[in-house]
Amino acid sequence: MNKTITSLTVLSGIALAITFSAPLMAADGKAVFEKTCKMCHVPGIAGAPKLGDKAEWAARNKKGMDTLVKNAIGGFKGAKGMMPPKGGNPKLSDADVKAAVQYMLDASK
Ligand code: HEC
User: Fold this and answer.
1) CA-CA distance, 60 to 63, in Å (whole number)?
2) How far is the C-alpha of 28 from the C-alpha of 95, rounded, in Å?
3) Nearest CA to ligand 1 atom 27
4) Is the separation of the CB atoms in 97 and 84 below 8 Å?
5) pTM exceeds 0.85
6) Which of the listed residues 36, 40, 83, 96 should we mutate to test ligand 1's pocket, taking the one with most ligand atoms within 8 A of CB?
7) What is the third-level CATH fold of 28-106?
8) Would you list the domain boundaries of the chain?
9) How far, CA to CA in Å, does 15 sit from each of 19, 21, 26?
10) Contact residues of ligand 1, CB 6 A cut-off
């Protein structure tokens, strides 16, 4: 009997964890960044502003968050290179891309 109660408790704990982590995963900037943006924005491939490069991101930030998000979603050709729409991953939602931009800005202050 006790065993049944214990396993029920464990099961509902798992169910709760899944319920609460799902909305977070929908727009987890770090996770999106790691998966889609990192390959260019860490090594600085093709002129991509590197994560943690304060000067570079401060200059970008002057355009305003809305413009940066718009350029990340729709793609952007700048003086340095080509930012593909949604980093080349059309499965990302606009909110995912926005969260990833926010993550890069926060990590580059
Ligand atoms: C294939 C390489 C590549 C990938 C993948 C990539 N980027 Fe970029 N990104 C670039 C390059 C290159 C630039 C710089 C373009 C320039 O300024 O000439 C850039 C610029 C940007 C900018 C600045 C735009 C502006 O207006 O100055 C933002 C914001 C950005 N990327 C966000 C992202 C996000 C978010 C992701 C992941 C979802 C991502 N990038 C994935 C190559 C990439």
Assistant:
1) 6
2) 9
3) 60
4) no
5) no
6) 83
7) Cytochrome Bc1 Complex; Chain D, domain 2 (1.10.760)
8) 28-106
9) 6, 10, 17
10) 32, 36-37, 39-41, 45-49, 60, 63, 67-68, 71-72, 76, 78-84, 86-88, 92, 97, 100-101
Structure confidence by residue, pLDDT tens digits, 66-94: 999 999 999 999 999 999 999 999 999 99
* Average of per-residue pLDDT values in the chain: 87
pLDDT surpasses 50 at 100: yes
Token readout for 5 is: 């109660």
CA torsion angle 68 73 74 79 (round to 10): 40
Higher pLDDT, 19 or 46: 46
